[in-house]
Amino acid sequence: SLDPLVGYHAIELLQRFMVKHLTDLLTTPTPPGAVAVQPRSYEDAVLVKMKKKFPLIVFSCVKLASKLSLHAHIIDNNTAVHFLNSVGHRVSKQTLLDLELMILKGLDFRLNTPNPLTYVEILLEVLGKTINTSKVPVERLYDLCHHVLQFVCLQKTAIYDTLLKTTIQQGSPSREQREKFVTVTEDCMLLGVGVIAVAAFILRVKNWEKVVGELSHITGISTKSISDFAHVTLMHLMRSSFPLT
User: Fold this and answer.
1) What is the per-residue pLDDT across 113-163, written as a single tens digit (0 to 9) for each?
2) Is 215 in contact with 193 (CB distance < 8 Å)?
3) How confident is the prediction for the chain on average, in pLDDT?
4) Rounded distance between C-alpha atoms, residue 223 and residue 209, angstroms
5) Which phi and psi (to 5°) does residue 150 adopt?
6) Nearest to 157 by CA among 178, 180, 188
7) Which helix (H) or strand (E) holds 105?
8) Which comes out higher in pLDDT, residue 80 or 147?
9) Which part of the chain has CATH 1.10.472?
10) Residue 196 contacts residue 211 (beta carbons within 8 Å)
């Protein structure tokens, strides 16, 4: 089974690489003498080509992440080829090596990207040493935080879109506002404290405000920002559990 840390690290590598790779592909000038194509049709062609490669790129990111983990089994080339062939992707070892090299170059060989699960675990460890654990069950929070973090990652676009609208108090954010908000979506510290706050609320921790206050003290993130993140996430959790008809 895949170590959760490897999974989250792979997601971060994938997101960073895809942004860089697609930006490069879509901004590359048309070669001299090439037949001019409509911008939209060129974008479609790029995306169609990328769609074919995407499963292999995802797997290559997982493979790279497994090599960086001290506690996970490294996915070797033989295992990788066997697995991919078993799910219908005929691929050679050389193709996988070429893909890994492409990803490494795309990331400028910078693989130590922030991992949201690492932030959650460190924050919980610090919280356990600074707060009364008889009133705040940190061990129980740990297990629940895994589920909350998974939900937030799966619903990331919707949750952060709602958070943006809540922050600016507008229903239709401008392009400039969305661009400025990107730094918030990449803030693993905010994500970490938000996940812990949500888990504490679900466990009905009596001193919930104290937990939020302590998280604010540890990280320097305002209690309002933590509460807003928790409120938005809980709202999406409720909608997914009890969909409106």
Assistant:
1) 888 999 999 999 999 888 766 677 788 899 999 999 999 999 999 999 999
2) yes
3) 86
4) 9
5) -60, -45
6) 178
7) helix 93-106
8) 147
9) 4-106
10) yes
Q: What is the average per-residue pLDDT within 4-32? A: 84
Range 203-217 average pLDDT: 90
Whole-angstrom Cα distance, residue 113 to residue 138?
Answer: 26
How large is the C-alpha radius of gyration of the chain? Answer: 21
Q: Indicate the pLDDT class of residue 30, thresholds 50, 70 and 90.
A: low
Task: Judge whether 233 and 149 are in contact, CB under 8 Å.
Answer: no
Reduced to 3 states, what is the DSSP secondary structure of residue 243? coil
- Assign residue 226 a region: left if phi > 0, alpha if psi is -120 to 50, beta otherwise? alpha
Instruction: Name the one residue in this structure whose structure tokens are 């983990």.
Output: 69
pTM: 0.81
Using the CB atoms, write b or e for 118-134: b if 16+ within 10 Å. Answer: ebbbebbeebeeebeee
Give the architecture (CATH level 2) of 4-106: Orthogonal Bundle (1.10)
Cα dihedral 240, 241, 244, 245 in deg (nearest 10) = 110
